[in-house]
Amino acid sequence: MKPTLQDVADAVGVSRSTVSNAYSRPDQLSAALRARILDAAGRLGYPGPNPTARSLRRGVVGAVGVLFTSRLSYAFTDPFAVRFLAGVGEAVERHGSNLLLVPLPAERARVRAAIDNAAVDGFCVYCAGDEDWALNAIRARGLPYVTTAPRADAGPTDRYVGIDERAAARSIADHVAALGHRRVALLGESVLPQAAAGPLRLAGPADAPHPTTRGRLTGFAEAFAAVGVEWSAVTVLNATDNSRAAGAAALSAALAGDRPPTAVLACSDVLALGALDALARAGERLAHPVSVTGFDDIAEAASAGLTTVRQPAEEKGRLAAALLLEPPADPADGHVLLPTDLVVRTSTGPAPRS
Q1: In this predicted model, what pLDDT tens digit does every residue of 215-258 receive, in sequence order?
Q2: Is residue 301 part of a domain?
Q3: Could you tell me which CDD domains the record lists for this protein (predicted)?
Q4: Rounded to two decimals, what is the model's pTM?
């Protein structure tokens, strides 16, 4: 039989609670007594109290879950996600807690199980699309959460840290429009679920299911509508995931047409870098230069000369975790919009003359 906490207590001649304190509340014991208990536990082969059982008794797990609808590898390979998680990790570490990554299954029937089985005290919900179905599962557990998507219907107890996606996208699209571009393509990841790579028909930005993509497409559309470019004249390009290869594949199809765009506005820097790759491969086959913009300002954007929107990834992660671990006294302080900046580099220039 495996040694138990009682075996250690008997060996040392103390109570079970004293042995438990040697692990969970060492400040309650003298250094000499704690050393005797741990020495006896080592001789007996007792590994210590079960952490799950201890957490259940305390009612606190000591861990924050980061929930996102993507492959687990995305958390380690996407540049913006890496920076966001670094911010979360910094705040969680400072608080003395741990971090659990919880990729959300695509099948909604499995969502409840994924959330119910996560041993956490609350969730940071990162880029989880139209997330009500996930939030409902969290609410059913009675756990707090913070999202990275500002919500117009946010109540006083809801907490979020995000940016004004529409306004940020409008700023970069205004820049492109001011350069004279009117034949433009908008490039996003999974603009419509299950759509193939390349051009697709989208009745309007409101039909994009993911709130981040929807907000950015709306900002782009408003800027071009202001200079007389109707939505029907805009090319929407679908990338099957947020990777350079997917961005390149989506744009390549549009470049093969008779009237390729003079500018490509991507919903992320990673997709924009893929667009630049496709343009480099097309080379002299193109009749004119094509301007490209991104979104996020990841490290590679600067070296590529990419015009983009800068948003504070680490700060977003830090604040999201802080709101979860240390809820503000004033509920209004739980609604946080972070600033963004337009960063103009060499990837944008004047539209070619007709």
Answers
A1: 999 999 999 999 999 999 999 999 999 999 999 999 998 898 77
A2: yes
A3: HTH_LacI (cd01392), PBP1_LacI-like (cd06279)
A4: 0.82
